[in-house]
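Lecture notes, continued. The same structure-token format from the folding unit now serves as the input rather than the output. Read the line below as a description of shape only.
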């Protein structure tokens, strides 16, 4: 006798109960799959975004804030590094190149960052639509910026607290002082219209949403020295070499070392009282540790949910068995072997678990894809969730446990005498 014929008959007869059980299993599996897939995508995406930033040097303070500002372009209040450090790092024999990063302005929702043409070439692997900037009023657009070559824009001052912007004690800053300061700053920005002369290739990082201008233009807009002697032959020059006597403070330096050993030497040399230097990976490890702890808690909750779901399903199946007891009793009385009835009930439960798990894997992955797309749009970090070994093992573990628990009601039915089943109906 083929047990699948009876299994299909039960599915058709009790389709609503079957559908309910499958949906519950699918939602349980989707929760665990989504957590694992999304956490892995965040790890990979954030790590890839930091690949081009070998060493970051900044003023002593929070390395996490510096990382978020320099790599992920998140508005954070960071101390300025003495401009003379830039000149010092530039001539270090272990350095292939160093690029300053200057933040504080935006255009619409896109951050405007000041840096050098060399940094743009490095970040885009030399692939650029158009050309790098050659004049202070020119800019480069990231791949996701809605500006084309030839478009013009005006940067807007933002992300700064008024009292901090004035570099005064908050108690000494009057409303009149603040208003006058920001009116002058807004006027300076209105006069500093930029023309897009190039577009970066897609990097899968927050820099796809950035507008990069000469660092000199950011300094000039804020009425600071531009790194070049205004009376010298390089008064209108862009980029290195800079004149240390005319270098203002910068939030961060991105350093590319010449060698692996040189990278550790530079980190050691510039990690002290004057500066902090770090590899982005070492700070990301701290972040991943926190994410890992959170994932562990969420995974445990997901597993507990799955176990409760299984117990709930089998409680429902025991109730369903009361409805099917007469049919099973009749089959036994007609000569159906116990093993056949055992196979019918176990196969029915196994089919529910398998169907729900398969649907749950797809649902969890789909939700992770949608969430990743939303996060990528907000942060610029390319996130690519997938179904890997951990997600498949999580679902497989659920299925194996379910198959094992399915033996309980099947065993009860196997041991139930036919005459007793008929008497209880």
């Amino acid at each position: 006798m083929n047990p699948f014929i009876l299994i299909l008959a039960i599915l058709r007869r009790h389709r609503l109960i079957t559908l309910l059980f499958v949906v519950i299993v699918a939602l349980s599996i989707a929760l665990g799959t989504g957590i694992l897939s999304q956490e892995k995508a965040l790890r990979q995406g954030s790590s890839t975004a930091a690949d081009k930033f070998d060493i970051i040097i900044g003023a002593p303070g929070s390395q996490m804030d510096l990382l978020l500002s320099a790599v992920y372009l998140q508005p954070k209040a960071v101390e300025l590094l003495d401009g003379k450090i830039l000149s010092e790092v530039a001539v270090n024999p272990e350095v292939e190149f160093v690029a300053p990063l200057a933040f504080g302005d935006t255009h619409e929702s896109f951050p405007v960052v000041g840096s050098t043409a060399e940094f743009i070439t490095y970040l885009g692997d030399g692939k650029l639509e158009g050309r790098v900037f050659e004049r202070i009023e020119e800019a480069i657009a990231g791949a996701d910026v809605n500006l084309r070559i030839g478009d013009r824009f005006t940067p807007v001052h933002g992300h700064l607290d008024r009292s901090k912007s004035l570099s005064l004690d908050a108690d000494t800053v009057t409303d009149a002082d603040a208003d006058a300061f920001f009116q002058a700053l807004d006027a300076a920005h209105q006069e500093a219209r930029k023309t897009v002369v190039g577009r970066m290739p897609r990097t899968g990082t927050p820099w796809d949403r950035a507008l990069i201008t000469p660092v000199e233009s950011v300094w000039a807009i804020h009425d600071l020295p531009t790194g070049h002697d205004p009376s010298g032959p390089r008064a209108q020059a862009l980029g290195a070499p800079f004149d240390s006597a005319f270098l203002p403070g910068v939030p961060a330096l991105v350093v590319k070392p010449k060698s692996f050993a040189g990278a550790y030497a530079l980190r050691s040399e510039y990690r002290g009282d004057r500066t902090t230097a770090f590899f982005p990976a070492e700070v990301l490890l701290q972040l991943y540790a926190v994410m890992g702890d959170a994932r562990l808690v969420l995974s445990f909750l997901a597993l507990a949910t799955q176990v409760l779901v299984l117990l709930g399903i089998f409680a429902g199946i025991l109730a369903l068995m009361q409805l099917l007891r007469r049919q099973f009793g009749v089959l036994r009385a007609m000569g159906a072997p116990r093993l056949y009835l055992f196979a019918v009930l176990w196969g029915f439960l196994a089919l529910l678990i398998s169907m729900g798990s398969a649907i749950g894997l797809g649902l969890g992955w789909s939700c992770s894809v949608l969430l990743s797309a939303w996060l990528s749009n907000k942060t610029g970090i390319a996130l690519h969730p997938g179904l890997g070994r951990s997600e498949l093992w999580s679902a497989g573990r659920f299925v194996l446990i379910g198959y094992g628990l399915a033996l309980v009601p099947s065993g009860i039915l196997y041991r139930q005498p036919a005459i007793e089943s008929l008497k209880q109906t």
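Point for the exam: The longest helix spans residues 280-333.
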